[in-house]
Design goal:
- This is Response regulator receiver domain-containing protein.
- One of its GO terms (biological process) is phosphorelay signal transduction system.
- The modification 4-aspartylphosphate is found at residue 52.
- With 109 residues, the chain is of the alpha/beta class.
- The protein has a single domain (3-95), classed as Response regulator (Rossmann fold, 3-Layer(aba) Sandwich).
- Helices cover 40% and strands 17% of the residues.
- It is built from 4 helices and 4 strands.
- It has helices at 11-23, 34-43, 60-70, 86-95; strands spanning 3-7, 27-31, 48-52, 77-80.
- Helix 3 links the parallel strand 3 and strand 4.
């Protein structure tokens, strides 16, 4: 199947994504911050990258920009974010080809 890099500083979310993808047969590697993700992307090939936007050291947007500037890693990037301020949304739109809004379906009590 696919070789996927998951970069997120939140361990629980990173493990949830990793376990889900591995359960369906994908090979998954992890990074805990943007700098670690960029180092892996510069030395390895991936079919898909899942980046959290708000990570320490280097944001997901900065990782994507570095890859684009270096013309390295021609693979899809899924950006995860919890940002909801209008200014953050506009900034994301400037840098994205596609934006998919996933709304919270409900809350568990």
């Amino acid at each position: 199947m696919a070789r996927i890099l998951v970069a997120d500083d939140e361990e629980v979310l990173r493990m949830l994504i990793t376990d889900t993808l591995e359960d369906v047969g994908h090979e998954v590697e992890n990074a805990v911050n943007g700098n670690e993700a960029l180092q892996k992307l510069q030395s390895e090939e991936y079919n898909l990258v899942i980046l959290d936007n708000m990570m320490p050291v280097m944001s997901g947007i900065e990782v994507a920009q570095s890859l684009s500037a270096a013309r390295k890693q021609h693979c899809p990037i899924i950006m995860l974010t919890a940002k909801t301020k209008q200014s953050d949304i506009e900034e994301t739109k400037k840098r994205a080809f596609y934006i998919i809004w996933l709304n919270r379906l409900g809350r568990l009590n």
